[in-house]
Each structure stands twice: as structure tokens, then as C-alpha cells.
Amino acid sequence: MSQTDTSPQKKQKKPTEDRPIIVKGARVHNLKDIDVTIPRNQMTVITGVSGSGKSSLAFDTIYAEGQRRYVESLSSYARQFLERMDKPDVDYMQGISPAMAIQQKTTSSNPRSTVGTTTEIYDYMRLLFARIGHTISPKSGREVKKDSTKTAIEELHQQFEDGTKFYVLFSIPEHEEKGLEDELRVLKEKGYPRLLHIEDESILDLTADEVDPDDLDADNYRVLVDRLILKSDEDTRSRIAGSLETAFHEGRGRCSVKIRDGDELNFSERFEMDGMEFQEPTPQMFSFNNPYGACDTCEGFGKVSGIDEDLVIPDPTKTIRDSAIAPFNGEKFSENLRDFIKVAARNSLPIDTPYQDLSDEVKEILWEGKGDYIGIRPFFEDVKSQSYKVHMRVFYSRYRGYSRCPDCKGYRVRKDGLYVKVNDKHIGQVAEMTIGHAREFFEELELSDFEKEVAEQILYEIRKRLKYLDEVGLEYLTLNRKAKTLSGGESQRISLANSLGSSLIGSLYVLDEPTIGLHPRDNDRLINILKSLRDIGNTVLVVEHDPEMIKAADNVIDIGPFAGVHGGEVVFSGDYDKLLESKTLTGKYLSEEKKIPVPEKRRDGSGKSLVLKGAMENNLKDLDVEFPLGKLICVTGVSGSGKSTMVHDTLYAAVENEFGTYKDNIGKHRKVEGLHNIDSVEMVDQSPIGRSSRSNPATYTKAFDGIRDLFANTRQSKIMGYEPGHFSFNVPGGRCETCQGEGIQKIEMQFMADIELTCEECGGKRYRKDVLQVKYRGKNIHDVLEMSVSEAIEFFVDEERITTKLQTLEDVGLGYVKLGQSAPTLSGGEAQRVKLAKFLSKSVGNHTLYFFDEPTTGLHFEDIAKLLDSFNELVNNGHTVIIIEHNLDVIKCADHIIDIGPEGGFAGGQIVATGTPEEIAATEGSHTGRYLKEEL
After folding, report:
1. pLDDT over 90 percentage in the chain
2. Which of 464, 518, 623, 659 has its CA 20 to 30 A from that of 281?
3. How far apart are alpha carbons 807 and 792 in whole angstroms?
């Protein structure tokens, strides 16, 4: 074929890098046979009203296919299940890269898992401490080092001038088995007949002098190996080295040098100092997940079951004289307090200083005792020893809980691990730092040239990870924070930072609303992170409602026009400027053609208040906060400022405890005033409405009870003798017993995530075939569960008992959700709105205090408008609603705002401003106020 031939065979294919991701004919869930093109190496945002099909496209179609293709490349063991693993319902897909989903899930429920271990920072720290850590003796504070012939000679030349006379010695061997007489005989036979008296330097010759072993003070004598004069020439150095080697060998790793008329210098080839033998650092020694490195007492958890300090000292702002120690307040044990006051008078200890301001030394005496005073810990040991008495058992149980491990002081690592330091800090102290402080610590680390060379790569990895965590706005988290206590948004941002740290390229990242839990101030940082993920050569696909994120996208896909059966179409695809001109719901809100209006006036409330006094949990700085009742209250502030700690862990916990139903720890505070003004309390958070896949919106709102009664009353049911129970998939009777009414079966995969497959017996319909024969208006029970809430309201239009319960789901914007949708598949925001619907359906009556934790999660502007109507309905019915929120549309509609900050972590926990949105917007130094000003 000639060089100039341009036949089609020679036409080169475009490299995969430039080929876009093409999806044709996607029909997963409610998607209506749609086609989409996603440009490669760009950031695409998929937006649209809640339930329109965004996640169906991003996760259930594009990500699922990427995952399926990956599993296809695995072993035949994994592939044997693949024929049963559903392929996304789509005609054709091209250009799919290896896909990674970063979802709103708390990363781990393992109590040992921390931010440090999840991000691998702690693993690199273990390596760093093992490689360049200095072991410091706790007795003298000097560094523990192993000596060798070479280091001993160097030390002699450093400390003494040439011409110095000295002896090379080793100790007389221990003589438990042999008597001293035998030891001396062996020394003579080995050719070491002379002993040197260490103080007067007199020499005892074992061959010439008469020696009585009983009179010989062996501790003051050393075996003499050689007498030498310090010189720098090669021959003398060689002779000194030979003598030292002999002394080390005969002294079993230890020897000494006695300067003539001077000091004795001890050398040891063992890792020891001050009479203590130390372990040489290894990475395992710092691992609290490994039996070798974990503290023996607490097994690496950092806490032991015993006496809870928070229960013993419930109010740390009180002084000892002012009854800070709860167990010593009663008449029975008050003599212990009198004993302490006597000891305090003798030793000038402060008893009129608040407990929280006492020094560690005073607290040590208070807890461990001194002189006539028993101490809190020994006091409780004494109480425990009398547990055969019922009242003593009851008294002890009142103060029982978890306290910091007394051995490792809560650092989780074995003691010798804490003797190893880098820049005067042991690994536990570094793990207690926040990410921001740790970043500073590792950036400013002062190391010798040798240490820099050894630790260069390790430090690069640590600094890189800390930089990304800092940039995603998590600088307030401590490295030892337990992973299971993180919010969904925090976990997602940690996963994002991990992905950046791994520096993969050519991948597809699918993210689920990464701005959740982020203050508007931190959004820019997150957007920059996603852009850098794109810039290194990845395709980034984000499901998102945040206007800033949509604006930053290279490409926007708007799914709609509405939710559920009325959604599932691509209503717009293109760039941000074109979206503003489009007539889609999203476009109208972004171009401000449609807006959520600011209320004309703020409600006055009932005139009564709930006042939280002295809140001190985590980073809260002894706050007194007033919550006016009968209003819509927003608690705002940057991530990590202390909002959840104040509202969820302290106020809600204290109020719920007052009503006698709270089981968990209550945040430290002095008291809550005004509790008589409320009748009940409800927390509407983002936890699932049920753990079981059998739980769903119909059963949760109790609408299903009415539906089952209707089916049981049909003529067909009466003939067959079916009761309402036959139409329940939770109890045996009418349900399919193969899958026990779940419609799916779980296959446990070794070493991989479990796979869920449709039940082959009932085809996923949950019921026996005969029960599915029963029809109401032409539909069987499975058909009803497949209906969306909106369809069901039309279908059961005459049945008020059912429609009133379903109407509230419609009102909170969940008309698109199927009645039988499994609870675990609902998003956090959807689960929260199902709970809200349940409360809205209750009759008006008592004054209830409602708590909501970021209820706008997963909501489009249109849905937020509906949500606000629901909140206003609750408040207008005489209730109080307290919301933790970052969304400015909700914040601007509040009657009262409490802004916490100014920053996250240690720099937070203070009240920045309180008042109406207008008052907050006028406050200097409020980050929330700065963004509110633009909204108002």
C-alpha cells in the first residue's frame, strides 16, 4: 500500500483520553430512556429536583457499570455471581473509566478506627518515630543510646585531651550460680588477675595477694583489662579499640573507663539507661491495633471501665470548697472532703479555685490521695470492695463509666512507645493535635541532615495528606478523633482527601453532594480541591444542588422536570451561562427569576425561653445560650465550630434526659432553665428510619395499616380467609418465605462487599403467588407498594385514613418516593423528611421542641421552599423548631439565629452573634453574617 493511501483502515482512533463518556437509553429506576454525553477530564455537575433521577444516573448507571466492569476483571470465584448481578438497564455505554464513588457514609464503625488511621497519616507517623525517634529515659530525661567501641572512643576524644591516663574495666560477673570464689578463679584462668578499687584506684592481684572472697566488696571492684594513655595515632586507637572490645565481650555488653584520679564512664551495648532496659523502636511498637504495640491495660482503646470523671465532677467550674466532688457532698462521706481540706492547708493547695483551673499536680493529689486524705480512686476501690452491700453497689454504679486509661494516659500505646520522641513530642501527643496544628508541626520539624535523609519520603507523604485534609476544610479535626463520630460530610471529605493523596489519574470520581455540612465560607476550598482532581487528569461527576458548585462546573446536566414518574428526563445539558437562560426550575432559581422570599416580619414567639447554662462539652467555652420558644431558630457557624455539640450533645440530650428517655452521654453543662415551658421533645436527624430493608415510608408513617385493612376487606380475601396480617411482609403468613418478605437475597462474598440479588422465588415481589391474586381496584399489594406517594394519593382518594398520612409526605416534597422503597436506600435528607411528615401528621396539641440536623441535605431550591412551609406550619401550631443549618435560604427565613464560631475546633465554641437575620448580617466578624448580607 502506498504512503499516500488515505483509505479508512489507516484512520487512527482517538485516544481514550479524549473520548467522552456516552450513555444511551438509560432506564434505571425512573430514567426515561435518556442519552447523555459527559466530557472527559472535566467537572460535570448533575442537578435537578430531589427524586428526579440524579443518583440513578450518576451512581446506579454510570458508577455501577464502572464497578461491574472492574469486577468482571476479577477471579472466576467473583465472576460466578456476576451472571446474577444486575447490569444497569441501558442500551449502550462507552468511555467508562475505572470508577470511584465518594458517598455520604460514615467511613467506619470500628471503635479503633481514627482520622489518623483512616487517612494513613498515623501509619506514616509510626514509621517516622521508628526511624528517627529518640528514646528518652523517664528518670533522667537523657537520650538512651547503644554504645559501641567506635562511639566510646569518640566520646573519650571529645571529653578528654591527649595524654589522659585511664583504665579499661568491666564489672565482676554476677555470681548467683557459682560462688564469688569460683568467679575469681575463672578470671585468673582467663588471664584477668587484677582488680581495681574504683575509689582509691588500688590494685588487687589475685595471683599474689591473699584474697578472702567473704571480705571482698565486689561492688567497689572492677576487673582491669588495660591501662592506657589517650593518643590520636593509629596504633594507640587500635589498642584502645581492642581493649574496649574485650571488655564489652567479657562484661556481657557492658564496660567502663576510669580516668586516673577522675570519673568512671559507663558504656553499654545494650539499649539501657538509669538502670532501665528499653525496647528499640519498631513501627509495631506504636500501633494500638496490634497486641505488641497496644497498652496492656486498655488494649489500645485509651479508656477503661471504671469511675467516670464527668460524673464525679459534674460541674468543673465549681471549687472544691463549693462541693465540686459529688460523691463527697452527702453527709456519709463528707469526712473525706474535710481530710482533703486539712491536707490542702498543710501543703498550700488551692481549694477556692474552680476544678477546671487546678494544676495537674493538685488533681493528682485529689484523685490519688496524700497523707490522711484517701483520694477519689482509692475511695472508690474501697466502695467496690464492699459490693456485697446493696447500697454500696448502688452508690458505685452511680459514678461508673469510662475514664482515661491510667497507664497510657489515654494515648492507647504501650509505655515504651511513649518514651520515643521526635522534636520533644511522643506519638500520642502528635495524634492529639488538630490537622491544622499537625500540619504546622510537620512543616516546621527541625531535623539533622542524617534524619532528613532517612525521613524525607515519609515526611513528604504525611505533609501531602495533611495539606489535602486542611484544604477540604477539616483542619479542626484531631488525628485521634474516632472515625465513627464523624458526620457524613466529614467522612466524604476525608475520602476525597485520600483520593487526592493517592494521585490516581484517568479515573472517574462520582461524588454525592460533597458540600453537605460545609459553611458557604468553605465551599470555595472544596471546589478548588475538585478542580485539582480534574486538572491532574480525572473526570469528576458531582451530584449537587449548591449554586456555587453548579457555577464552578465545566458542564451541567439538569434532570427533571419534576420528581419520580414526572422526572427522569434530561431537561438541560450545557454550560452554566446557558443554564441561566434556560427555563428549567434550576435555571429559574439560579437566574433569580424564582426566589425563596424573605419573610415580611419575624415572629415574636411565645415570650418564654429555654436557657442552656455553662455548656462546656468538647470545644464549647462555658456558654450561656437563650433559645426563645415559639420561633424558628437556626444555629449556624463554620464546620467544627461546636453547633452539633451544643444543640445535639448538650441541649437535646439534657432535655430528653429530663423527660427520662435519654440513654447516652450528656454534654457537660451546669443546667437548663425553662424546661417547664415544653411538653415533649423530638430529634429529627439523618439516621435511617429503619435498619431493616423491610422498613419503608408506608410502614413508618403507618399508612400501610390502612392499606392492609382495605385488602383484607375485599371479597376475594373474605373467601380465602385472609386477615390484614397476610398482607404484611414482616410476619409469616402471606409473605414469600424464601426471602422472608425482603424481595432480595444477600450473597456473602469472601473478601468483597456482599452482593444483593433479586429473590428467584417471588421475583422481588415479597409475597406468595396466591396473596398477589387479591386485587383492590385492579391492583395487587405489590403494585401498591410500587406506587409513588403522589400516585397513591390519587389511587386511594376516598380513603381519608390513608391519604392524610400520605399527604404529609407529599407536603415535605417526597411525592416521588415509592411507598415500598426500602429504608436503607433512602438518602439522609429523605429519611429526615419522612420523620418530619410523621410529626406533621400528628394532631396539634402539646408544645413540642423539634430539633433538625441539616434538613436541606439533598434538597433542590424548589424542595427547600416546601420544607420551609412545613417548618412554618409546625411553628404556627405553637411548637418550637431548632435547626442546625448552613443553607442560606433557610437561615434567612429564621426568626432567631445563634451564630457559633468564629472558627472551627479550638478557635470555635464561642457565641459570635444572636438575633434576627438582619442583626446577624450587621455583625462584624461573623462569617455567616457576611454571606447573609448578600442574601438579604
Report:
1. 65
2. 464
3. 10
CA distance 933 to 917: 9
Whether residue 230 lies inside any domain: the answer is yes
Burial call 647-686: b when 16+ CB within 10 Å, e when fewer: bbbbbbbbbbeeeeebeeebbbbbebeeeebbeebbbbbb
**Phi–psi pair at 172, nearest 5 degrees:** -65, 125
Phi and psi torsions of 518, nearest 5°: -105, 135
In a domain, 748, yes or no: yes
What stretch of H or E contains 760?
none
The CATH code of the domain that includes 315 is 1.10.8.280
CA distance 312 to 335: 17
Lookup: cell for 368: 490519688
Please indicate, yes or no, whether residues 576 and 548 belong to a single structural domain of this protein. Answer: yes
Helix (H, G, I), strand (E, B) or coil at 615: strand
Q: How confident is the model at residue 1 (pLDDT cuts 50, 70, 90)?
A: very low
Q: Give the domain extent around 400.
A: 303-404
**Overall number of domains in the chain:** 5
In the Cβ-directed half-sphere of 867, how many Cα atoms lie within 13 Å?
Answer: 31
Mean pLDDT of the chain: 90
Kindly report the number of other CB atoms within 10 A of residue 447's CB atom: 15
Other CB atoms within 10 Å distance of the CB of residue 884: 21
Question: pLDDT of 625-656, one tens digit each?
Answer: 999 999 999 999 998 899 999 999 999 999 99
Query: By 3-state DSSP, what share of the chain in percent is helix, strand and coil, each rounded to 5?
Result: 40, 20, 40
**Quick one: which of 642, 133, 131, 640 has its CA closest to 436?**
640
Structural domain includes residue 851: yes
What does the pLDDT read at residue 846?
Answer: 84
Q: What are phi and psi of 776, to 5 degrees?
A: -120, 120
State the average pLDDT over residues 670-679.
93
- Mark residue 15 as left, alpha or beta (left: phi above 0; alpha: psi -120 to 50; beta: remaining): beta
pTM recorded for the entire structure: 0.80
pLDDT band at 17 (very low <50, low <70, confident <90, very high): low
- Cell digits for 153? 572512643
